[in-house]
Amino acid sequence: MLAEVGREDEEKWLAEGIAGLQQNAYYMGRALDTNNLRDALKYSAQMLSELRTSKLSPHKYYELYMRAFDELRKLEMYFKEETRRGVSITDLYELVQHAGNVLPRLYLLCTVGSVYITSKEAPAKDVLKDLVEMCRAIQNPVSGLFLRSYLSQISRDKLPDIGSEYEGDADSVIDAVDFVLQNFTEMNKLWVRMQYQGHVHEREKREKERNELRDLVGKNLHVLSQLESVDLVMYKETVLPRILEQVVNCKDDLAQYYLMDCIIQVFPDEYHLQTLETLLGACPQLQPTVDIKTVLGRLMDRLSNYAASSGEVLPEFLQVEAFSKLSTAIGKVIEAQVDMPIVGAITLYVSLLTFTLRVHPDRLDYVDQVLGACVKKLSGKAKLEDSKATKQIVALLSAPLEKYNDIVTALKLPNYPRVMDHLDNETNKIMAVVIIQSIMKNNTCISTADKVEALFELIKGLIRDTDGGAFDEVDEEDFKEEQNSVARLIHMLHNDDPAEMLQIISTVRKHILLGGSKRLPFTVPPLIFSALKLVRRLQIQAGDVGEDAPTTPKKIFLILNQTIEALSAVPSPELALRLYLQCAEAANDCDLEPVAYEFFTQAFILYEEEVADSKAQVTAIHLIIGTLQRMNVFGVENRDTLTHKATGYSAKLLKKPDQCRAVYACSHLFSVDDQDGIKDGERVLLCLKRALRIANAAQQMANVTRGGSGPVTLFIEILNKYLYFFENGNPQITSSVIQDLIELIMTETQSESTAADPSAIAFFNSTQRYIRFQKQKGGALGEKYEPIRV
């Protein structure tokens, strides 16, 4: 409510000020039109008296000031006209000094002084020195700032600079710089003084008002940067030291932050590079509350962009030892500001690392030095829990990855993993995922066991528990995504040398076996397939690889057996069983019968002891049958043992339909097309008859439990198996046997007790069409089908 009343009062005061200013401006205009100089000066002084108010905020005062500024431009034009008509500008300069109040007098003096310099009746340096000294009379911060801003505005194109029409001797050039620096110094003092006026509880309001006025002070630095006389020598010896002296001595955090930022923004990059030591030397002397990390960050950004603009400037960076100076300065700032939060220090190191990577990308020692400084700062502290600090650490660690697009380069940095060690577990995982994504994105191949060891130490947060924490707190989807990323990483590890590749596999195995029961199902399979890929390569080179070679398929299969054994103990029996069968098939291709038999044995043991779910049993037995069918390495005895086991387990499945399908699938084990000697037609027929009996039993059970026969799908599936072996020339499968089965199916489908199943009928019709098609096609196969009636 009080604030609302204050705003209303301020609006009223502004309106009164504008009204008084306009009224006097009107009379001043009339006096100018009638060429009445004394009245014009009288009314202009009364008009400018409105600027003496201390009731307005800077924002409202600016509105009033701009109206007065517009009127003063008219007055200045009148003074110029008067001088052209012969009126002495010196007399005018003396005359305006008789104005009653100081502030109007100084505004009029500045206005006449501008014309005085233009007339060149007196040296510009003398007039400017006179004006800048007289402006000290105004010590009210707001009034003084706007008065000096007016002085700066009207004089900026009249400075005795090199190449200017007002240039005098060599000293006048220095005087131009002195004038701007003096005006800047006085304005900064006024600006800082604002902070200490008024009540303590209005501090926030004053800071806001000061922020509104800061550009008035900063414009002086912009004017300095535009002067031709301010070359590198002048800047280095005079301008920068005097500006920094004022910045440090004002001891005001707002002013120090803004002015340091102004220096960095307005002066050329080349000047910053050549005066780096002087500029950085001021940083530790700033107030502890100054946001120095942003200031230094912007300085390093500008220097980085300067280096990127042209390769020709890079030697300058080496010549002035820019990295060394920046690194030392940052260390001193962190040491001086003992209360600086850890996030501030890390942010400084991120900026320094970004600068290093852009300016000196080939200097890995510089990069590691920055990381080492960060480690030193973090040493002795607990793992970071501040989210802002950990975010900066991630930025620090991500920068080399983004620059080099190669994790191998990052692995050469000894301090890289030490920085990661200071991350909390969750952020460590995030960083590990970033590393893996970088490898995927850039298709980086990690090709030695040493690099793999270093890499897996970096991403250990993903592949094992680092603090024994429970999995209950981990989001299941996030966990799966993390482990899938590790699995993809394993496939990126490769070396053409089999011995080195085996070392890589052993290194990965060592790490992932520490992962625990939840991780192994994700990480073991890619390792197994990576090893099997190596086995295939060795198989191709079989003629060149002896038994005594350091890397042989037998040695790899031994490692695989032990690895899958660890997985089966998790327990994850279904997955382990699949992997045993994959290994058995690879051993078959390598002609290693004992190894293949051992893998099958392990698969059967898992099936017997661990696979209890009926659906899992069905899937497992079909996998076993399918794999065993493709094996050609076994002798008669071993093959008989395994096929007997497979058919036995098939007949023991819980559900009759599952039994039936598994048993007729076993018929393929006795008729393998690509191997001589396995064409046992009788045992094929035996399997099919057994499948028929089981199908019949399933029909009877359906009749008992549902009051009607079940679908005839099983009979149709068996019929298709009969047709397959019939075409393949199995002498035990005759046309009469097929005819009997067709008639059985037709009888069943027409029976009223049989449940109607459109898909089964469609399946049977399709089978009949196939028989008719073969009969019509003719040939030897058509003759075989001829006796069958459909």
From TrEMBL:
One of its GO terms (biological process) is intracellular protein transport. It is found in: Cytoplasm; Endosome membrane; Golgi apparatus, trans-Golgi network membrane; Prevacuolar compartment membrane. Keywords: Cytoplasm, Endosome, Golgi apparatus, Membrane, Protein transport, Transport. It is a peripheral membrane protein. It comes from the Eukaryota. GO terms for cellular component: cytosol; endosome membrane; Golgi apparatus; late endosome; retromer, cargo-selective complex. Its main location: cytoplasm. Plays a role in vesicular protein sorting. Belongs to the VPS35 family. This is Vacuolar protein sorting-associated protein 35.
